[in-house]
């Protein structure tokens, strides 16, 4: 009996030793964790302690991984806040616990990019709030008093407050703010005063009239835009609160010197200006003078600059989903009195009278952060019409590097005051 018991004890010891060796070899193998071990077959009494040790090791690995995740996310937060040294310390601690912790984390937001994902979610929430802001303001004003007033004086004053004016008068004031120049920037600034002004500035009738002035009959349908204001903001259009400017430079060869030793070279520099008006008129000027001296003269159409070309333009939405601007411009007609005394003693040979007009085609684009601020040349031609015969000669210019794009520059003085309401 004693010999049998000693043999069974040696067998159990050998089985436990084999299980320990197998465990050790599996732990040393790459990519195998202790939670994935399977012990060798043995009796139930010898297997229970091995399973308990495997479970303990698995829990220890899970706790270690959770701690590494916590340290890694802390490092990401410190990096986004600009504390790079603190972030490096937490990164090092996390990777000492679990070397490949970076690939075991499921990010709820982008780790790099300074919280871009979070900002996108916040921006979408802000858009939803802005969409409901008009409704909220209207409800608040309705619940305040039975006699609804758009605004209330912040402090008591003896003078009559603007809130005492009827709604019709207030809306007429708002139309003067927009004016015939379509100064919608001032309207948006006025909407920041209070909730009542915000409601007035979102009046659909104002925005509908603005869209009609810009696009005419082509904007009868609101679809696919949510409102007339959205149409004004999203649909391509030319801008009226400034001027489109381009600058062109080139080198021109001069005449040879008298002694023939050298030839002069000239650097030519000139500007093109385009100013659009809401009533469909456009002004164009090509001059070597810089914008500081020219832009103030372009405020009104009744300018005294002789070289300015006046005309009309139209917007065209092509099938390729590109918006183009076509304009026909010509020099201002000036009637000169006939000097009969000059031709008193000899017969005058009448010269053929002609009319010159320029046809311009431009593509409307957006550049950078601003919208509809770039015009690219696609066509330029000169039409000379003889008044007596009605014949027209057309000269088309090649669009080369001399036709640089025109970029928009806002001019505050163009909307400094209103001449008439919307």
TrEMBL record:
Keyword Cytoplasm among record annotations: yes
Pathway as given in its UniProt record: Protein modification; protein ubiquitination
GO biological process, one term: SCF-dependent proteasomal ubiquitin-dependent protein catabolic process
F-box domain segment(s): 159-210
SUPFAM superfamilies cross-referenced by the UniProt entry: F-box domain
Keywords from the UniProt entry: Cytoplasm, TPR repeat, Ubl conjugation pathway
Gene3D superfamilies referenced in this protein's UniProt entry, alphabetically: 1.20.1280.50
GO cellular component: cytoplasm; SCF ubiquitin ligase complex
Quaternary structure, from the entry: Part of the SCF (SKP1-CUL1-F-box) E3 ubiquitin-protein ligase complex SCF(FBXO9).
Record function comment: Substrate recognition component of a SCF (SKP1-CUL1-F-box protein) E3 ubiquitin-protein ligase complex which mediates the ubiquitination and subsequent proteasomal degradation of target proteins and acts as a regulator of mTOR signaling.
Protein name in the entry: F-box only protein
């Amino acid at each position: 009996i004693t010999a049998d018991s000693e043999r069974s004890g040696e067998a159990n010891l050998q089985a436990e030793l084999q299980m320990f060796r197998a465990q050790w070899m599996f732990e040393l193998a790459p990519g195998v964790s202790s939670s994935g071990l399977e012990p060798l077959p043995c009796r139930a009494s010898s297997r229970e302690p091995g399973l308990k040790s495997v479970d303990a090791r698995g829990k220890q690995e899970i706790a270690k991984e959770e701690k590494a995740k916590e340290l890694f996310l802390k490092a990401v937060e410190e990096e986004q806040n600009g504390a790079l040294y603190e972030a490096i310390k937490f990164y090092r601690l996390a990777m000492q616990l679990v070397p490949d912790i970076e690939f075991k984390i499921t990010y709820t937001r982008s780790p790099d990019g300074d919280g871009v994902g979070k900002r996108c979610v916040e921006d979408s929430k802000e858009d939803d709030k802005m969409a409901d802001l008009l409704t909220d303001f209207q409800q608040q004003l309705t619940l305040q008093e039975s006699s609804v007033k758009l605004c209330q004086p912040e402090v008591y004053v003896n003078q009559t407050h603007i809130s005492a004016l009827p709604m019709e008068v207030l809306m007429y004031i708002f139309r003067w703010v927009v004016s015939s120049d379509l100064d919608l920037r001032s309207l948006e600034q006025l909407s920041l005063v209070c909730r009542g002004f915000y409601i007035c500035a979102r009046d659909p009738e104002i925005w509908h009239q603005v869209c009609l002035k810009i696009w005419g009959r082509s904007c009868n349908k609101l679809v696919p835009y949510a409102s007339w204001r959205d149409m004004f903001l999203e649909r391509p259009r030319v801008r009226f609160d400034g001027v489109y400017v381009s600058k062109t430079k080139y080198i021109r060869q001069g005449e040879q010197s008298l002694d023939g030793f050298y030839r002069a070279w000239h650097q030519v520099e000139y500007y093109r200006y385009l100013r659009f008006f809401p009533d469909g008129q456009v002004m164009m000027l090509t001059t070597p003078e810089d914008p500081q001296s020219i832009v103030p003269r372009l405020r009104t159409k009744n300018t005294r600059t002789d070289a300015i070309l006046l005309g009309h333009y139209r917007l065209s939405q092509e099938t390729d989903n590109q918006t183009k601007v076509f304009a026909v411009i010509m020099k201002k007609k000036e009637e000169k009195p006939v000097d009969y005394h000059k031709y008193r003693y000899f017969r005058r040979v009448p010269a053929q009278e002609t009319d010159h007009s320029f046809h311009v085609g431009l593509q409307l684009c957006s550049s950078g952060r601003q919208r509809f601020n770039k015009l690219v040349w696609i066509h330029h031609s000169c039409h000379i019409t003889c008044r007596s015969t009605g014949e027209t000669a057309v000269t088309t210019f090649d669009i080369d590097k001399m036709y640089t794009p025109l970029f928009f520059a806002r001019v505050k003085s163009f909307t400094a005051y209103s001449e008439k309401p919307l």
